Queue: 4 jobs
Job 1
Amino acid sequence: MSNQSLVVTSQNVLLPGSDQLQPATITVNIDTGKITDIQTVYAERSPGGEATFIDAGDKFVLPGLVDAHVHLNEPGRTDWEGFWTGTRAAVAGGITTVVDMPLNSIPPTTTLRNLEIKRQTAQGQCWADVGFWGGVIPGNQADLKPLVAAGVKGFKCFLIESGVDEFPSISEHDLHAHMQELQDQSTVLLFHAELESDSCSVQNHEEHDQTAYQTFLSSRPQELEVNAISLITVLQEKYNSLRCHIVHLSASSALPIICAARSRGLNLTVETCFHYLCLSADDIPHGRPEFKCCPPIRSKSNRDALWEALIDGTIDCVVSDHSPCVAELKKFEEGDIMSAWGGINSLGFGLSLLWTEGQKRGISLGQIIRWTSEETAKHAGLSSSKGRLSVGHDGDLVIWDPAAEFKVSKEHFHFKNKFSAYEGMVLNGVVQQTVLRGRVAYDRTQNGFDGLTPIGKLL
């Protein structure tokens, strides 16, 4: 083993325990990929020896982001996305770790064999480190403990139809067997939290304009999320050792239920998404299916309430829920929002999105990194190695220009299908370089990936 190191220095480094940027010099052992030293000074010249030296000047040095909600869709739906394209999009946006959802790949990650198929497919394709969520579906409770032992970070289930036949939703009755199986394990159960009831169900609204966003919005009311989260908290009373997690919260009316559950000591965590914080139903034009996702983007007042909940800690973290598909399924020609696939293409834009919107709200960069790196790493069980610039942690870092401005266009899309709800938006903050375990994984000055090879690991 050599002692080759990477040394990165900057006037503006975000270190743990502070929202303030400060001068620092970070040393990473390239063989182990671990940070070995941090000095809180700016080094104006290379230490020499075998070290590779990066002087970031006044550019910001941040921990690599951890996106804990990504659909990479491989194998099976590789025309939608794949490990190669999805992880390239990630590192181009400063994301050094993604955690792949158990759907919409075929097969889904619901058995040990299916996990192995997915891992074999991913080998040699990953530009970022990749972890895996398992799936909970009716009848697979015997598969859960072997998946935990094999390293899945937790399990996702749907309380409403998922949109793909191979990943059916699960009933309250069936959930008992799965939660019983998981409650003594070091894991977490993630819920797509929409639930139909006698008084509230998804409406087709066939008599209304199928191209109007308001038609779609009214078809999936906040009550669906309230119903689901109410059920989850009831289940948690019985299986209180199992952490439960709400994915992509969109309904601000569910926040009081979450607060009440936590006040009773329930181990409940919550994420929201960039699109719920940065977009508003009030601004979505007719006939634009790229804005469709489930649950829906809601009103400005709802968005403000989500921001408040994020700031006060009711919502723990922010993820992309990058959920792509092929253009045909988005029904662009018809503008038919109601029959289009639901999902926002966004992988790699989160840091710029939150920085741009957050500046209007007095949000610090430290808060943003806490929500998108430290808390997401903790959620995925990766906080011993990811999510902060600390000695002993992986040398995952981002060199970032906070002042650079760009207009989102197709040339910025490294994911497979080149459309997004964010196209045309002007954003602040551009990734200059992304470093994964001490090695450069993306370099904007070298056309992004020239001369580089994928070095991501499967976690």
Note: The first strand starts at residue 5 and ends at 13.
Job 2
Amino acid sequence: MGPQEAAQSGPAALSPAALGQLKQRAAECVELSAGRLSALSREIWSRPELAYEEHQAHGAMTRFFSCAELPGAAWAVQPHYKLDTAFRAEWGPAAPAPRPLHLGFLCEYDALPGIGHACGHNLIAEAGAAAALGVKGALESLPPPPPAAVKITVLGTPAEEGGGGKIDLIEAGAFDDLDVVFMAHPAQDDAAYLPDVAEHDVTVKYYGKASHAAAYPWEGINALDAAVLAYNNLSVLRQQMKPTWRVHGIIKNGGVKPNIVPSYTELEFYLRAPSLKDLAVLTEKAENCFKAAAVATECNVEIKGGRHDYYNVLQNKSLEKTYIENGKELGMEFLADESFLNGPSGSTDFGNVTYVVPGIHPYFYIGSDALNHTEPYTAASGSQEAQFYTLRAAKALAMTALDVIFKPDLLEKVREDFRQMTLKEEGYLNVTQQGKESGTGAACATR
């Protein structure tokens, strides 16, 4: 499935001066709503909610786009769009002919257990909303008739930190009519791309036999021994793992009492690799470690994945180059350390989106050196200082979207990048699908 191209009018080109003025107008529109955007972000930040439970955040986002005080024409808002805490807000021609260029801006708003918005998803929601407002305001400032038919959609995508809300929405058809998608993620630096990797998580359960651990331990089958062996098997495997592979996990259940031979244990592991090809290899090796522990201890083992695999984010170098050019105009200083840019990062369900539609997922500095998924980052994501940097990233996204609209050659390059990258990875999608069918699917986040 690719971006929609059939029966679509190409965007009309603008002169560099006219496009520059339009970008300035987009930035002004973002600033015009800065107060409302900050309040939106703060409301989400102050009431953190976990995956698929983002009811208050969903309400805040849908009220924001339904507000009559927003500049320009009204948004058409669909709350509870395909998922209970997802939404869709649209602006554009009602019945265009031919089909308009359709741009999507994605908002996340789920939090982490115990430490709230330590990944700054309140800022992701704000940046997506702000960028959409900027593009809409710029297009509405043009005299009629518009030089290009354009439709803007804002998608509220829940459950990035666990479950994979974007994957649910892909499967429900929410991305079928989108041509290019945009979002931005807070970090410690500005970067147009970081190598977010493919991820598979797995729950392993061992079933043994309880017995008195002192009186007759020989009558028992120790499920904790299986769990410990499995953990150690994976530790030994690390010697033969590629430097870009990651395996990390916990023992969630290790028994109930020292004088009872544990009859049940449970582990949870995340497996990560830069590509679906490598992930399939790593998954097979890890499962062999789990099975070997069961054989050695005579336990029964159940290996079960989550609902979804997270795919690696496919680069779109044309979008990245354009975003960097616009970001530099706004004063961004982009990361240049190749070792960091080429090293492994976290994982995100936006990776799955890049397999069905061209997109960009840049990272942006928020005024703090705190690391994601820590309490200091929670504080930073709710700070006033983060507002300037978040809106700057939103402006860069909006300016990049305007380039896509009014530079026909850029749109074609974006589509060609998408075609080449998906063709390269296409052969490994079948491997992933087979893994899901055998009960070894996965889900994770930008952890």
Note: Residues 107 and 122 are 9 Å apart (CA to CA).
Job 3
Amino acid sequence: MEPTRAYPLFGGAFSAVFPRGAIDVSDLRPVPDNQEVFCHPRTDQSLIVELLELQAHVQGEAAARYHFEDVGRVQGSRVLQVESVQPLNLETLALRGCCQEAWVLSGKPQVAKENQQVAKDVTLHQALLRVPQYQTDLLVTFNHPPPDNRSSLGPENLSPPSWNLGDFQQLVTSLTLHDPNIFGPQ
């Protein structure tokens, strides 16, 4: 994947800039229709863009925490530790025209990988972009698990470096809506 090219998401309804080397997981296995999932070629890092139903019953920082806890429940997290929740400046977003509220949460859910008993702290960064005119919460998640000793998918010197917060921020700020029909009739 080109480092500065916007990559189409959800059939071209959105696009965003992904870090170099991002692999579209839908080329490897089925992914739910409301998700776009990308993995790093060498690490266990992943980036997920989700279109979720607007959770109008929670507002502000509580909405970011709600989605963090919901993801934690789905992943079977034993412990959910929120490290920070900060508002995102809407002016920095390509979606600023339709996003009315945005938050970034950093936390550490404790998750055991498939077929493993020992849970590990995973660093998780989530950006919640609230788009009430389309009854949608857009959730962008950066999973940054601790490194393990598995072999890389390719020669070490050809693999891109691990992703960082700058890569996550570029994805979040570049996320662009091209076709609002993805949300159905309004």
Note: The chain has a mean pLDDT of 87.
Job 4
Amino acid sequence: MPPIRDKFVIHSKAVVCQDVDLKGDINIGPGTVVHPKAAIFALVGPIVIGAGCIIEEAVIIVNRRKDIMRIGDNNLFEIGCRVECPSIGDFNTISTRARVHNTVRMSNHCVIGAQCLVVPAEDETLAEYTCIYGPAADRRIWSGRGQVQEADLRMKHAEYLREMLPKFNRLRRSDGT
């Protein structure tokens, strides 16, 4: 396997801390916030991260497929989660220490609960508003109530982080600098 060539495209409005581990071909969209100690690895194919995402500490995002891994807009990756799914829609939440395998595709407004392990035997696409929770990874469909309030709260959260993180961390710019 040839060595991984690092190529980072970080939008000027994105906030990416200096001590983030980036490997491979990665494109980070406007307004996205990447906390220190996060790791994003495009081992085989590239990763494209949309606008307004929040990637917290110790998050690991890995693309092991040749296809482009697309992460939509306004997604929240909480502390210590590991995500390998090739397609993630918009407004999803992957909670603390959850793991999502590369056989899963997420649509919009899905929630993976804390410490849930989502590893289906064959390729699966989660329907919109799917919630996975509990130690047995039980599933249900969210009614969508409170969706506007959640979106507003996430926007305020991202705005606060874009203001505060540069005060206490050095930032990374495009092309590995």
Note: Residues 147-168 form the longest helix (22 residues).
